[in-house]
Design brief:
The structure holds two protein chains of two kinds. By secondary structure, chain A is an all-alpha fold. Chain A is 77% helix and 0% strand. Classes of the chains: A mainly alpha, B alpha+beta.
Chain lengths: 305, 735
């Protein structure tokens, strides 16, 4: 186990290095800079601005500064806002986290319930209906689902605010919209996983012991059947927590997701590279957690590693 | 990536809204009961890039900063300047100087009196390279501007080569090499203002005791001297001693005052410079006739060798003076008719030196900010909200109707309209409505019944096609493209009441002018086109008519182009536009159809991301494309005509016409304002006939205001005095 963790961490550092390098050069290769606007300023003024942000240094020098910052987990200052990237993560991260966790919890519970019920009633009309719902959840993009939910539940019924999540009720619609795609996937994975385990010997044993079908499915089959879901939830959590541009934009939630896109269109170099490194670090970490969880859930893998 | 673009999101919301049929009321959405008549909830069009007048430039930020920071003049309800800190002003007959007379009632929110020295400080700060303000060119007309932003004009401290001490000189070279030959980036002009001290420097407010220091510069550390007390453009010295205001480059930087005598080291003192006096036209305080100035500009100015220790960059090299606490003088190099039109702008909204000094980049945040305007900032969260309250120290309390202003920073237009619909905002920022909502709001898709709370008004902006004149160098080709567009169709394409005219300088439709302005414009009510009112009832500019739709002439011009260009005649035309705004695509399709139908030209469309588009059009990697230009003051010259001069960084068509240049140069020396406008009109006519750009329409602004909102004035530059707004609980009865 210790070797696993250590190996993953070393690999993670390498991945971070590659991401920080590639994102730096890709973004700098894109045309335009952070201070271009349709109202171009005289050359001398432009030079003064670039000097202030060291944009007139040679690219290799900017790269070295950038990597030094990444190595010390600093990430530097935004060029468009008077804030450091760290401050931005601290300010907006929790809002994405809150939204992402709510969406995650919804996706995990709703999706698993859907999938296991479908598996228990496999090849009946219940199974088919639930799987169509799951498919809809996966295929309707949030930029369609969001406005539809706003139209029905906010403008129509007036249950939730249409934008600006100030309290729990403000987070309900965005969390549902964000969680829906993941819930659909979780449902399909859970169904497949449980179906797979239902044909296993130990399940037959459980049935032979005379246990009810409910106990067999929800206690014994689910335990192993859930593994694909867990595998999926690791990276999904990282994606959910780092924010969703579309959902945050539709519902005007000041989370982190906006900056993944906003910093590209702003050419705000430190913010984009900083956020990517942060996101990838998160991803590496969660994948590691998932690997450890395998061992906890499935007694058979413990010996294997 | 998993993130598609924002316009799709807006479209989808619009579809959901329009598709599900809106309630058929008189107003768009719910009209809640007024809970607090002195609290406005305003949906702004995004997160402002800041609130420091020196660092902002967007329409998102400026109206907020104008509520926080008072100016010599402020934008009145009609968007034209009205007296504020200044009670009156005298404009010199040659239009090269304005003297503002200030009242003594103004206070900063920390209680300190606001004086002319504060305004001088801010003007110099706007232009200082350390500030790196994106709006520095807003003051490009004042004396000394060009040299100052390059750090090249200095005060001569000791007599040298016949130039007396105190002369303003420009550096023409150093270390034996001329400025023009010092090209590489590492070869920067040595800063004569570098100083060190043999003892630690206690940075503090002017005249404060050393114990009140908020930062201490270690011994021997380099600082930059910014100004000295007691000089013509600076605050008076607190006692007999001269104080120096310095910048220490630590972290985000810090500024502060110290007794000047403590700065005893001068790292660049021995650098050899070559200087000459600046032209008399750029010397503050020098009054000569325009002919005398022209003669001096042509005269040879002798170059003199001096050492760095005899040169000092100070704000007084600029045309700004504060002779006393209640008088502010600003001087322009050329006759500048728009000095008053520009005076309410952010470039002359003083900022509080004590706050800026301590935290130059972050002083305009809640807790640190010191304000001078009707409202004071109390809270802010990025991309969320900004909270302002009535400022108890503001001098003109009777003018303030609001006690609280909550600004929601909403960058999604659909979200903004939705929040308005549910009654969570009382009003939304001009034009922050999705294009796809306009057919419904304007009544086009509602049997011609617009919502009663929806308003469309003219906006000082023009939407035009830019033509790369290096590729499309044949004027007949450009004119053919211009003649073939039927602008009257545009409101039916965009549904926002756009003013489809082929003229360039925007304005108000002549049909909608006030009676008093009609006379000033010298036009009849039924004259087609628009006019720009510069001074109510006094001064007006009517742009020359554009190349309006004329399919016959379009084909004639095209034939001429075909003959003249021969094999170079383009087989097809590429039209580029930027993504992010639905309307640009609709306009592109309209242009494509028109050129195809009238001229038979195949038009390719290409959409590009905004920064790529800016870069390509700047580098002339385009044939035709879209561009818009929004003015910030009613002045055709500074706001609209200058951008197409040869040297302008905004001249994307790369059009350079000697006749236009000559007319613009001629206008620039004229002091009779009406004659000058006539000359500008001649220049604009040349521009229009040459068609480097093809104007399509004048912008309009679209507003949604709940029926109880009072005095939220809509003006031609969309600068509403927000503090004058109030909400009427009895709106139904008074309707």
């Amino acid at each position: 186990m210790l070797r696993l963790i250590l190996g993953r961490l070393i690999g993670g550092v390498f991945v971070l290095f590659v991401v920080a390098t590639v994102s730096f050069f890709l973004l700098h290769a894109a045309k335009g800079g952070p201070f271009d606007s349709d109202r171009a300023v005289p050359e001398a003024v432009q030079r003064n601005i670039e000097e202030r942000y060291h944009l007139n240094d040679p690219l290799w020098k900017q790269y070295v500064t950038h990597m030094e910052r990444v190595a010390t987990l600093d990430f530097g200052h935004s060029m468009k806002r008077q804030k450091s990237v760290k401050e931005m993560i601290a300010e907006h991260g929790p809002k994405s986290l809150r939204l992402g966790l709510m969406a995650m919890v919804f996706a995990a519970i709703f999706g698993t319930a859907l999938g296991v019920t479908a598996a228990a009633r496999r090849n009946t009309w219940v199974d088919y209906t639930l799987m169509v719902i799951a498919l809809l959840g996966i295929s309707i993009p949030s930029l369609v689902l969001g406005p539809m939910f706003i139209r029905w539940f906010s403008l129509g019924l007036g249950w939730f605010p249409p934008a600006r999540a100030e309290d729990f009720s403000g987070y309900v619609l965005p969390a549902l919209v964000l969680g829906m795609i993941y819930a659909g996937t979780v449902a399909r994975l859970a169904r497949a996983g449980v179906l797979d385990t239902l044909s296993q010997d130990y399940v037959r044993t459980a049935r032979a012991k005379g246990l009810t079908e409910r106990v067999v499915v929800w206690k014994h089959a689910l335990r192993l059947g859930i593994i694909p879901v867990i595998t999926y939830l690791g990276p999904a959590t990282a994606a959910l927590i780092s924010g969703s541009f579309v959902v945050e934009k539709i519902f005007q939630i000041p989370g982190l997701g906006f900056y993944f896109v906003g910093s590209v269109s702003d050419r705000d170099y430190p913010v984009l590279t900083g956020l990517l490194v942060f996101y990838v670090a998160f991803l590496v970490l969660l994948n590691l957690v998932v690997d450890i969880l395998y061992g906890v859930i499935d007694p058979r893998t413990r010996g294997a590693r | 990536m998993r993130h598609p673009g924002m316009p799709i999101a807006a479209t989808a919301t619009a579809l959901a809204l329009a598709g599900c049929s809106l309630p058929d009321g008189e107003y768009f959405g719910r009209v809640p009961a007024v809970r607090d008549p002195k609290h406005l909830r305003y949906c702004n069009n995004g997160q402002p890039e800041g609130l420091d007048p020196a660092q902002i430039s967007s329409t998102t930020a400026t109206p907020l900063a104008h509520a926080l920071f008072d100016g010599l003049t402020r934008y009145g309800n009609d968007g034209l300047p009205e007296a504020s800190l200044a009670t009156s002003w005298d404009v010199a007959p040659d239009l090269r100087r304005v003297t503002f007379h200030l009242h003594d009632k103004a206070r900063w929110s920390n209680g300190r009196s606001l004086t002319a020295h504060d305004i001088a400080y801010h003007a110099a700060r706007m232009l200082h390279p350390l500030t790196a303000s994106p709006s520095a060119d807003g003051l490009d007309w004042i004396k000394g501007y060009d040299l100052f932003i390059e750090g090249r004009n200095k005060v001569l401290l000791a007599e040298a080569g016949g130039l007396p001490a105190g002369t303003i000189v420009e550096i023409t070279g150093w270390a034996g090499v001329s400025v023009a030959d010092h090209k590489t980036a590492k070869d920067r002009l040595p800063d004569t203002n570098l100083r060190t001290a043999s003892r630690p420097l206690a940075l503090r407010d002017l005249g404060a005791a050393p114990a009140a220091a908020y930062a201490t510069v270690p011994r021997g550390t380099q600082v930059v001297l910014i100004e000295l007390s007691g000089r013509p453009a600076s605050a008076p010295s607190p006692g007999a001693e001269t104080w120096a205001y310095v910048h220490w480059n630590r972290g985000d930087g810090v500024f502060g005052w110290v007794p000047a005598a403590e700065l005893d080291g001068q790292p660049t003192g021995d650098v050899a410079f070559r200087v000459r006096r600046v032209p008399k036209q750029q010397q503050p305080g020098v009054d000569l006739t325009l002919d005398e100035l022209a003669a001096d500009n042509a005269a040879v100015r002798a170059e003199v060798d001096v050492r760095g220790k005899d040169l000092l960059g100070l704000p007084e090299v600029l045309g700004i003076r504060a002779p006393d606490a209640r008088t502010f003088v600003i001087e322009a190099g050329d006759p500048t008719p728009y000095m008053i039109s520009m005076s309410p702008s952010r470039v002359l909204r003083p900022t509080p030196r004590e706050a800026v000094s301590r935290s130059p980049r972050r002083w305009a945040e809640p807790g640190r900010i010191v304000t001078s305007g009707p409202l004071h900032l109390v809270a802010a969260a990025e991309r969320d909200y900004i909270e302002m309250v009535r400022s108890p120290t503001y001098w003109d309390q009777a003018d303030v109707k609001l006690d609280r202003l909550t600004v929601y920073s909403i960058d999604d237009q659909a979200a903004s309209a939705n929040l308005y619909y549910t009654g969570d905002c009382d009003a939304i920022r001009g034009s922050n409505v999705p294009t796809s909502y306009l057919p419904v709001l304007s009544g086009d898709k509602r049997g011609g019944r617009p919502y009663a709370d929806f308003t469309v008004a003219p906006y000082l902006g023009v939407y035009f096609i830019i033509v790369n004149t290096k590729q499309f160098d044949n004027v007949h080709l450009r004119r053919a493209l211009a003649f073939s567009l039927d602008r009257s169709l545009i409101p039916r394409v965009l549904h926002g009441g756009e003013i489809g005219v082929a003229s360039y300088t925007p304005g108000t439709p002549i049909a909608d002018l006030l009676e008093e302005d009609l006379a000033a414009c010298g036009v009849a009510r039924d004259t087609p086109g628009v006019a720009m009112v510069i001074e109510r009832g006094k001064l007006c500019y009517v742009p020359p008519p554009g190349l309006e739709f004329d399919p016959v002439r379009a084909k004639q011009e095209l034939e001429l182009a075909r003959q003249e260009m021969g094999p170079r005649f383009p087989k097809s035309v590429l039209y580029k536009f930027n993504t992010g705004v639905e309307g640009h695509k609709l306009v592109a399709e309209y242009v494509q159809a028109q050129w195809k139908n009238v001229l038979g030209i195949d038009v390719g469309l290409e959409s590009q991301e905004w920064k790529v588009y800016l870069s390509d059009t700047r580098k002339l990697q385009y044939q035709t494309g879209r561009m818009g230009w929004i003015g910030t003051a009613a002045d055709p010259e500074s706001e609209f005509l200058r951008i197409f001069r040869c040297s302008s960084p905004n001249n994307r068509p790369a059009w350079c016409n000697p006749k236009y240049e000559a007319l613009m140069d001629e206008a620039a020396t004229m002091t009779d304002r009406k004659a000058r406008l006539a000359k500008l009109r001649e220049a604009e006519a040349v521009f229009i006939e040459e068609a480097p750009v093809i104007p399509l329409y004048n912008y309009t602004q679209k507003h949604l205001q709940k029926p109880y909102v009072r005095d939220l004035h809509i003006n031609f530059i969309d600068q509403p005095p927000l503090w004058r707004v109030w909400l009427d609980p009895d709106w139904k009865r008074k309707k």
